[in-house]
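Revision sheet: structure tokens.
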Amino acid sequence: MELSMTTIHPDRSGRLNVAMVGHAFMGAAHSQAWRSAGRFFDLPLRPVMQVLGGRDAARTSAAAERMGWNDCDTDWRHLVTRDDVDLVDICTPGDSHAEIAIAALAAGKHVLCEKPLANTVAEAEEMTRAAEEAATRGVRAMVGFTYRRVPAIALARQMVAEGRLGDVRHVRAQYLQDWIADPEAPMSWRLDKEKAGSGALGDIGAHIIDLTQHVLGDDITEVSGQLETFVKERPLAAEHAGLSGASSGGPERGQVTVDDAAMFLARFRGGAAGVFEATRFATGRKNAIRIELNGSAGSLAFDFEDMNVLHFYDATEPAETAGFRRILVTEATHPYVGAWWPPGHGLGYEHGFTHQAVDLVTAIAAGTDPTPTFADGLRVQRVLGAVETSSDTRSWQEIPD
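Predicted:
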């Protein structure tokens, strides 16, 4: 198909030059995705890892060489205006998402922005307006709720849409980690409200809000929440943390200004009742994303720590043989799986990021808006804001449209 001048630079037809800002944990995951997307999937455009952005020249240069980027840049404001860039991938802490994304969209660059979309509802609203205006010029924007691209989750959404669960009555969602359960674990930017916006609520709670709305095909309309901070101060990190998040603490201490755990009740527009929990203090749970839907005709259950499996209960079967069925989601007919390995050869954490890149590149080439859109990210941000307000005021809060 013929692509518009605003979508792809006319001098490099068939390529999509990518710039990425940030090169820590998420930067490494996104780099893996850009490296592998075009090698396993037949894409309409070839992603090129053109330039990596970071604040420290030496560290950014080393990361670019290690992860396969062609060039590096220490000024994101310059990076988003470069003629050799078509798309800007934002992997920075939340306090810079809005500024970078809005500038990139204004410069005519497509944008992929990590979740949560912003640190505040006001920032998310501004980003959404910028994305909607940019779309009129053929410029696309997507927020990175990557777990949507896990094949078992994609299959769950498909089964709900087909009516296999009937009327969904209960939504149960947890995101459980334990990486700061030790009270002497050092401070990081994720524990600083100015940089992160919120703690477990926004960092991991945002994922299960998006996943349940996505799988159910329905929106949360009202919440009642409670936030808890169990450890109020921690040692400042004495050294840079790697991908594991582990680092040693020094003698000085800093204040934790975000929540350690978030719990809330929710009502969905279609009538389902929801129970949500997000915590980084669930000792022994490393990355447990647990979702269960109970409907009039069946149930679905998923846990990311067994990510290639979806459990399905068909309530229409005879009672003598009814029971939860374990579906191994590795068949070529399952979402995304056909591009990878033979049946039974499971996928891992990194594959969701590759699927995200595939879907984004495909949408850009087709001239359509990729999902989740910035408007979807704003919807999640409004739920986050309502949970925080609810916890502060001990009241139910409606989610504005």
